[in-house]
Amino acid sequence: MTVSLDRLKSTRVLAVLRAPSPDSALRAADALVDGGVTGLEITFSTPDAPAVIRALDEKYGDRIYVGAGTVTTQEQATRAAEAGAKFLVSPGTRENLTRAMKDTGLIVMTGALSPSEVMAAVEYGTDVVKIFPASLGGPAFLTALRGPFPTVPLMPTGGVSPENIGEWFAAGAIAVGAGSDLVSSAALTAGDWAAITRRAEAYAASGVGA
């Protein structure tokens, strides 16, 4: 079955949200949406991540594109899908996990870095290959991967900022993932939601909705 990646392409930026509590995750998500970033990846390192996903889905509906990140077990994939996630992201690629994620019917993104890992991810049926940590090679590395994999959807995560986001898309990214640069642990700890909104606005001003 061919899945549509149109929503991911139009969203462009997924905020990788690792929060210390469900409440801080929800507050940070509100701050991101206020700043113009509507792609929200709620990681399973966030306490009670499925409840956060469900609450955001009920509050915003189609206004946001919400999914689960740091998916490392089949149970997590199932729980995220039941909570209303629209996509699933794993930091690496394992055959059984990838196939279980695919069984949910959601968009599946699994992590890879080397060409061999990209080939394995494609073989196991991932919809998008998450290049992680992309900061190790930068946009030039993504350009190099485009040579042997011109049709594979690639999403770099790590090393993305408002200053270089255009370079990532020019290198062939279908979307980008932004973690601590967008939602810093300091802002989360301090409850500085305004700082998160300002950073989201910087991403939006760099062409998030282009």
From TrEMBL:
List where the protein spans the membrane. none
> Which InterPro entries does the record cross-reference, listed alphabetically?
Aldlse_KDPG_KHG, Aldolase_TIM
Hey, which pathway is this one from? Carbohydrate acid metabolism
Extract the Gene3D superfamilies matched here: Aldolase class I
Family matches, as SUPFAM superfamilies: Aldolase
Q: Which keywords, in A-to-Z order, does the entry hold? A: Carbohydrate metabolism, Lyase
What are the recorded GO MF terms, alphabetically?
(R,S)-4-hydroxy-2-oxoglutarate aldolase activity; 2-dehydro-3-deoxy-phosphogluconate aldolase activity
Per the record, the domain of life is Bacteria
Assigned EC number: 4.1.2.14, 4.1.3.16
The entry assigns this protein to a family as follows: Belongs to the KHG/KDPG aldolase family.
Indicate the quaternary assembly.
Homotrimer.
What name appears for this protein in its UniProt entry? Bifunctional 4-hydroxy-2-oxoglutarate aldolase/2-dehydro-3-deoxy-phosphogluconate aldolase
Phylogenetic placement of the source organism: Bacteria, Bacillati, Actinomycetota, Actinomycetes, Micrococcales
Q: Which gene encodes it?
A: eda
